């Protein structure tokens, strides 16, 4: 039973899709132009039908008329009736003449596409048009009347790319006071054209064979934010090129080889700079960007950077462009092209290998110098310490004439008794206990040969008893003791 329901449903599903859905979306007219509603706009699509006039019976309430890629040589006669049209695409036909007067009645017309037709000039009309977006690209236009666009008070976007324009009058857009985007790419300008326009924000002049860039090129466009001059033959950016509004400058694929501190000095709002694929060799200095506090994006790829010599810019500019937040997103574009032994190294690496390599050897010298210094220091310190110790040491007591008479060796012995603190009675031989407390004579044993010999030959017990006799009998010991006593006296006072 369940299987039956599922198979019935599977059988019905394609039938539902085929019958219901397309009928809502599409409604074929007699002449096979498609008509449909999309986003609340009524479309009539007669594109790609080889038409040279419009078929009868089209809904004149259409808001979007798609008439591209047909054989219209003149504007079709029926067109006049479509007074509600908002978007009209007549691209890919063979139109040449000026706009028919009835365009004045297309109050809702916002977008007119005349791309890829046969216009070789664009003539001014006597009436005003409400068009916001006019596409005249891919024609053969080489001349435009100076007051043409004064009839387009709402025109915001004008595409004149891929035409044959060599030059345009300076005031041509002065009265198109809504114009914001002007596309002039793929034309034949030899120099950056100068326009007066208070509204223009975006000017595109890519692929125009421009060689000449005059210093006052941007001065007539007070609102200009972006200019695209990519793929031209510009060899240098004029010093002091001035614009108070410009934020994005695209000069990629040109032949520029130098920047100076004056290049961007009068572009205070510059934020995005594209200098890819030019002929820069010498790595820039950060001072070139001293007047551009808002610079946030720089494109440098495709230049043949020379990292020759001890150029500190290799490091400073590298840091300027890569430190957070980075201005160059692709650090791989900051690479050396020459000399050959640093090819493919980053500017920073090349700098470190050439400069820092020396610094490394320098630092090893420094290390050695530190070691030598330390050794010398230690030696000096030990000398000083020795000197201090010897000067702190009490002078050996000068033997009195008495002691000298008694014993010639007294001086030598006395030096050994510096720390002697045993209280001794005056002019009497030491008692047994005193004698025990007295310091041993280490270095002056040679002056007591008998004592040494006996000491070497007898055991500890015998030595003790004998030593009493020695001490009492032997003169040197007495003299020694006296000098010791004097020493003690000296230290007390
Ligand atoms: C005009 O038509 C061309 C070709 O059909 C198309 O590439 C272009 O985007 C259209 N322009 C506008 C403004 O719609
Ligand atoms: C590259 O060669 C130059 C001399 O031709 C030399 O001064 C430099 O140190 C070399 N750099 C490296 C990284 O070997």
From TrEMBL:
Signal peptide boundaries: 1-19
Pfam families documented for this protein: LRR_1 (PF00560), LRR_8 (PF13855)
Keywords carried by this UniProt record: Leucine-rich repeat, Membrane, Receptor, Repeat, Signal, Transmembrane, Transmembrane helix
UniProt region (Disordered), positions on chain: 452-480
PROSITE patterns: LRR (PS51450)
Gene3D superfamilies: Ribonuclease Inhibitor (3.80.10.10)
Membrane-spanning intervals of the chain: 365-389
Keyword Cell inner membrane carried by entry: no
Record's protein name: Leucine-rich repeat-containing G-protein coupled receptor 4 isoform X1
Organism: Vanessa tameamea
């Amino acid at each position: 039973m369940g299987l039956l329901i599922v198979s019935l449903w599977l059988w019905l599903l394609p039938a539902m899709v085929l019958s219901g859905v397309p009928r809502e979306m599409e409604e074929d007219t007699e002449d096979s132009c498609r008509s449909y509603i999309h986003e609340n706009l009524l479309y009539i699509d007669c594109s790609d039908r080889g038409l040279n006039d419009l078929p009868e019976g089209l809904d004149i309430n259409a808001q979007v008329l798609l008439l591209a890629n047909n054989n219209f040589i003149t504007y079709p006669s029926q067109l006049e009736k479509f007074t509600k049209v908002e978007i009209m695409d007549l691209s890919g036909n063979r139109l040449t003449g000026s706009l028919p007067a009835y365009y004045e009645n297309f109050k809702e017309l916002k977008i007119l596409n005349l791309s890829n037709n046969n216009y070789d000039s664009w003539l001014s009309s006597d009436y005003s048009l409400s068009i916001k977006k006019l596409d005249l690209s891919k024609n053969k236009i080489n001349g435009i009347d100076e007051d043409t666009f004064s009839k387009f008070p709402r025109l915001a976007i004008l595409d004149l790319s891929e035409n044959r324009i060599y030059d345009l009058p300076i005031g041509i857009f002065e009265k198109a006071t809504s114009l914001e985007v002007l596309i002039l790419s793929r034309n034949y300008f030899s120099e950056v054209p100068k326009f007066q326009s208070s509204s223009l924000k975006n000017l595109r002049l890519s692929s125009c064979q421009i060689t000449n860039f005059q210093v006052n090129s941007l001065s007539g466009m007070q609102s200009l934010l972006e200019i695209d001059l990519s793929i031209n033959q510009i060899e240098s950016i004029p010093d002091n090129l001035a614009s108070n509004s410009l934020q994005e400058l695209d000069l990629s694929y040109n032949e520029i080889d130098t920047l100076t501190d004056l290049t961007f000095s009068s572009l205070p709002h510059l934020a995005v700079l594209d200098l890819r694929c030019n002929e820069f060799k010498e790595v820039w200095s950060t001072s070139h960007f001293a007047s551009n506090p808002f610079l946030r994006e720089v494109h440098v790829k495709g230049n043949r950077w020379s990292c020759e010599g001890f150029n500190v810019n290799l490091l400073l500019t590298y840091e300027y462009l890569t430190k957070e937040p980075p201005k160059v997103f692709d650090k791989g574009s900051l690479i050396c092209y020459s000399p050959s032994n640093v090819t493919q190294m980053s500017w920073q690496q090349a700098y470190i290998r050439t400069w820092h390599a020396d610094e490394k050897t320098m630092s090893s010298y420094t290390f050695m110098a530190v070691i030598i210094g330390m050794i010398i220091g230690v030696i000096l310190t030990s000398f000083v310490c020795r000197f201090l110790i010897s000067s702190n040491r009490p002078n050996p007591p000068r033997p009195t004439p008495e002691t000298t008479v008694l014993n010639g060796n007294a001086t030598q012995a006395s030096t050994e008794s510096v720390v002697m603190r045993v209280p001794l009675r005056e002019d009497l031989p030491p008692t047994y206990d005193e004698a025990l407390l007295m310091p041993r004579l280490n270095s002056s044993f040679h002056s007591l040969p008998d004592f040494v010999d006996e000491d070497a030959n007898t055991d500890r017990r015998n030595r003790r008893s004998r030593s009493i006799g020695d001490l009492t009998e032997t003169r040197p010991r007495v003299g020694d003791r006296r000098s010791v006593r004097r020493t003690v006296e000296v230290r007390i006072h």
